[in-house]
Amino acid sequence: MSDTLRLTAEELYKSELDALIANETNPVPTGWKMSPRSVLTYIMGGKSGNTVITPKYMGDKRIVEICIATLVTDRALLLIGEPGTAKSWLSEHLTAAINGCSTRVIQGTAGTTEEQIRYSWNYAMLLAKGPSHESLVKSPVYNAMETGTIARIEEISRCASEVQDALISILSEKRISVPELNEEIAAKKGFSVIATANTRDKGVNEMSSALKRRFNIVVLPAPADMETEIDIVNTRVKQLADSFGLTASLPDRTAVERVVTVFRELRNGQTLDGQIKLKQTSGVLSSAEAISLLVNSMALAGSFGNGKISDSDLAAALQGAVVKDESKDKLCWTEYLENVMRKRKGCASLYAECKERNS
Amino acid sequence: MAEYFGVRHLSPACAYYVTEFLERVKPEIVLIEGPSDLNELIAPLCSLETELPAAILAYTEKAPVRTVLWPYAEFSPEYRAMKWAVKNNKEVMFCDLPSSCLLSEDKDEENSEEKENNAPKSVSVYDALEKITGSDHYSFWEYTFEQCESYEDLIEAVSEYGKNLRENSEKDKHNQIREAYMRKLISECEKKASADKVAVITGAFHTYGIKNIPYTDEDKQLLSGLTKEKSKATLMPYSYYRLSSRSGYGAGSKAPAYFEILWKNRLSNTLKNSAPEYLSKIALYQRSNGYAASTAEVIEATRLAETLASMRGGKAPNLADLRDAAVTCMGHGSFGEISLACADTEIGTKIGSLPEGTVCTSVQEDFTRQLKELKLTKYRSASAEDIELDLRENLRVKTEKSAFLDLNRSFFLHRLRVLNIHFGELIPRHQDNATWAEAWRLQWSPEAEIEIVEASLQGDTVCGAAENILNFRLAESQSVSEAAAILSDVFMCGLSDCVKTAVMAVQRQAADCTSAADTGNAVGELSAIIRFGNLRRIDSEPVCPLLEKLFLRFCLSAETAAICDRAAATEIIGALSQINNACLSHDFLDEERFVRLLENLSDSEFANPLISGYACAVLTERGKISPEMLSALINRKLSKGTSASDGALWFEGLAKKNRRSLISRLSIWEKLCSFTQELDDEEFKSVLVCLRRTFSDFTPSEKSDIAENIGEVLGISKETAAEYITAAITEEQQQTLDELDDFDFGDI
Predict the structure, then answer these.
(1) What ranges do the domains of chain A cover?
(2) Are residues B419 and B385 in the same domain?
């Protein structure tokens, strides 16, 4: 096991990527490591030669097809969705498959500046030698243009609008000018940008329509059905537990099902059978959160319990995940517990634990 | 041996190449999959005056009406084949089971789904296909067949397709009988003309069941079991909408308007233009409806669609690719933004038309039959006649049918009303509580005939069409009062099957409803339904809890809602009166809560004075307010502390109800007189407007009674006062009043 906390996608799935490249039969676009179809296989899972490719994204295949096709047409791709719908995950794996490198990333924050998107200077060098190629600090986007690869911009809507707009000319002209050196860099074939943006978060900036027009926009939905979501949660919990070396046993199917049910019902504002309308909580309750909730419970159970996730561990974790805004969410959660969970078969002990913690 | 051409129904590619096939074969007889007893409809269908889409409709003569449909569009291969035969003067006929046999089969398997077309029903075939190809069968079909660019390609692809379809589907008796029948007709024709001069055009699935297989004794035995049902048939105009929404069979067309684009481009040999045309049409729709959609976006979408198609293994984009591309590039990732544009471009609104005199649909037939059954035939005349209905059971007659004759008439007329067929007009009655009586004015007009034909687009019988249209409106309804009004229509029409859907729709709307006025109106509708009780022989029980819920919702929200402007106040007063009526008629409603609400409203300083006044009037009427309390309230509301216009509005609200008891209370008029006398000129003007409005709908006798009161208060004789009040307005006064039209009401 590597001692790196989190390996990049291309490191983690090196053998799969190598197999796909080795078994390539379809034409490969300029600047790509493999054909669009192989990228699709890498993301959705399948077989390449004798190597089994694990699915990375579980959901609608068409959505992934649109993403890949967008990148083939040299358009930039904008992934939009609620938190925890695997936007960054998908963008990381797309670049890992297409370029074999997912690390050209700009993390968008309120503090991101235009220089971080274009280029900046090494000031010591700048003072010593004046503007020169050595003193130029290239941004990941700059790098991607030079090498004809794909740059990722995470959480683009968190950047200030004027910073976002620095991308407009880069995306339409596919050039970046460095007036200090009296130079203009033209992007090589294969350059593109994948940006991700949240829809329901607080503290995001509206994207200008000029910028939006330069992107093909793909909305990633929450998992369509219960089964898919349970699959996703199971797979990821197992992967994470392995890499963290958690000692507790994996949560059994009923536990996962219960957590996913609670999350789905509160997220959609109604029970699974559509009979009861529920108040929605202020948090988003994504699949990603369900995953981290279960991993936390495993850590709790492994370190302090008997190594098996108990109802009490689950209740504690649920309380923390659901009640984000004390005054509002607590009411929703109480209402949910009384109206839904209390009446559900086999949930009696979980209900009792949850109720105790929520009082 | 005859020549065979397998097609898929409603496929532009097959429609295009079927003509080429016929040109090559040059048959004397063309056999087409279709009802063999309805050959006489081919000629009118191919007439130049006919505009497609149109359908052949066969229906049973006796109720309950069962129907079978064969819909055709411009791009139906069957239609193109008929056209070719008619143009070249060749014999053309249908070769499938007669419609009368199909209708009789239907009866045997009552619970089987509607057999609208002769396509293989086994859904599993398509499921299997989807599993193998990984895409839905529409996409598969489009990639594999619609994009064929030569005759040979298509023939090869289709025959392969038909063969596989056949291998993967289970044998079913229905299809065996049909194919036996086709074999019989083919062998008969082969005897008539030389064998190679017979062309057979059927679904690709059937081609393999009939091609080069002789007609045997076994077939004869299969066919001997056929029964016939008395039936009629007609051509009827069809719509693209119905073609797409009611094509429950695998060979339907989800997107007729899109297929028309494909068809036209194939005719003009510009198949490559289909994708840009589809996307431009979406952009055009968006633009004409006020959304931005640029040419650049169309270009990007076209490029994306082409890339998607090549990734998915197609030569050119199919509908799914185009739609994905449109969503991504023009809809900013969400289908919702372009859903209307897609509906318009893919389904379209085209409706066919037929030459006059060729249409006799089952709805028309059903209409005539019901007229006869309900003894309404004599009203089918151009002169208007009134009819009085007593909806109660007639106990003096023997049969149930005649006991409920009037009720059934009412159902029938209400259904026509819902279908917008102008035959009967409901005459409003003054006796609001006479729930068992209805009066209609019946008049026949040629327009009604057309309206009935139009109704046939909704369903096959008057009842079925009414049900469909109400279900459609329910799905479209935007507010709780709208849904409740439709629920009431459901009861009026006696459509008990619809009740559940309608109640669900009201519930759904109620969950999201925030407007008090809306809730009030819904309560009114629901209350009326319950008041009908079981008179209409539909259980109204499921409506009660709904009413209770909405009633509570109103009581809780009305106080806040009452703080509003004048326009909204009028609406809330309407709602209040509905709630009041409901409360008077149903014991299960919480009356106490309502009275408490009224008390709060009439006492409130924040609520719109008009509403306060009205609440006070309701309380007075119900006797829930003591005379002392009332006069204290009047004193307060008409005192100096309250602004003059508020006082006048309050009085207007008060005077909306039980006027007689108001008139009889001298103290009120004393107060009103002193109130007006204390006003200064400017205030008086604003008050005058309100008071004029208040008294405008009083009757003359009420006015003269008021005059008497005022006379007494002011100490002048009754006659003099009446003279002032009833006298015509002088020019000078009129002028002053006109000036008041421009009066600035400020915050009133």
Answers:
(1) 9-219, 226-358
(2) yes
CA distance A71 to B664: 84
Asked if the Cβ–Cβ distance from B308 to A66 is below 8 Å, we say: yes
Which residues on chain B are in Cβ contact (under 8 Å) with A82? none
Inter-chain touch A69–B308, beta carbons under 8 Å = yes
User: Which residues of chain B have a Cβ shorter than 8 Å from any chain A Cβ?
Assistant: 292, 294, 296-297, 300, 303-304, 307-308, 311-312, 320, 324-325, 328-329, 332-334, 511
How large is the average pLDDT for residues B466-476?
85
Average pLDDT score, chain A: 84
**Closest chain A residue to the Cα of B334, Cα to Cα:** A219
CA angle B90, B92, B98 (to 5 degrees): 165
Element (H, E) at B581: helix B566-585
| Beta carbons of B303 and A73 less than 8 Å apart | yes
Do B340 and B413 sit in the same domain of this protein? Answer: no
CA distance A316 to chain B (A): 32
Per-residue model confidence as pLDDT tens digits over B205-244? 777 777 777 777 777 777 777 777 777 777 877 777 777 7
Reference B259, options B146, B154, B153; nearest CA is B146
Contact B328 A36 (CB under 8 A): no
CATH class name, domain A9-219: alpha beta
Q: B333, A213: Cβ pair inside 8 Å?
A: no
Q: Mark which residues 205-224 of A lie under 8 Å from B by CB.
A: 209, 212-213, 216-219
Taking an 8 Å cut-off on Cβ atoms, the answer to whether A62 and B320 are in contact is yes
**Residue A172 structure tokens:** 């339409």
Per DSSP, the residues of B712-746 read HHHT--HHHHHHHHHSPPPHHHHHHHHHHHT---T
Residue B729's pLDDT is: 66
Q: What's the whole-number mean pLDDT along residues B75-98? A: 84
> pLDDT tens digits for B246-298?
544 444 677 888 888 888 888 888 878 888 899 998 898 888 888 888 888 88
Cross-chain Cβ contact B332/A212 below 8 Å: yes
Give yes or no for A68 touching B (CB within 8 A).
yes
Tell me the ipTM for this assembly. 0.72
B510 neighbourhood in chain A, CB within 8 Å: none
One domain, residues B232 and B152: yes
B308–A65 C-beta distance less than 8 A: yes
CB B251 within 8 A of CB B9: yes
Region for A188 from its dihedrals, namely left if φ exceeds 0, alpha if ψ lies in -120 to 50, beta otherwise: beta
Measured CA to CA, the distance from residue A217 to residue A205 in angstroms comes to 17
pLDDT tens per residue across span B550-609: 887 787 777 778 788 877 888 888 888 888 888 888 877 777 888 888 888 888 778 888
A277 part of contact set with chain B, CB < 8 Å: yes
pLDDT (average), residues B43-66: 77
Q: How far is B186 from chain A (nearest CA, A)?
A: 46
Judge if B302 and B388 occupy the same domain: no
Contact B85, B92 (CB under 8 A): yes
Structural domain harbouring B455: 362-462
Residues forming a β-bridge with B198: B29
B371, B318: one domain: no
Cβ separation of B328 and A212 shorter than 8 Å? Answer: no
Does one domain contain both B8 and B79? yes
A37–B contact, CB cutoff 8 A: yes
CA angle (A278 as vertex; A272, A283 as ends), nearest 5: 100
Mind listing the pLDDT tens digit for each residue in B2-21? 778 888 788 888 888 888 88
Q: φ, ψ for residue B426 (rounded to 5)?
A: -75, 125
Q: What pLDDT is stored for residue B102 in this prediction?
A: 75
CB pairs under 8 A between A and B: 51
Q: How many domains does chain B have?
A: 4
Tell if the CB–CB gap between B311 and A212 is shorter than 8 Å.
Answer: no
pLDDT tens, position by position, B318-375: 888 888 888 888 888 888 888 888 888 888 877 777 776 666 677 777 888 888 888 8
Mean pLDDT of chain B: 77
Residue B572 lies in a domain: no
Q: Say if B285 falls within a structural domain.
A: yes
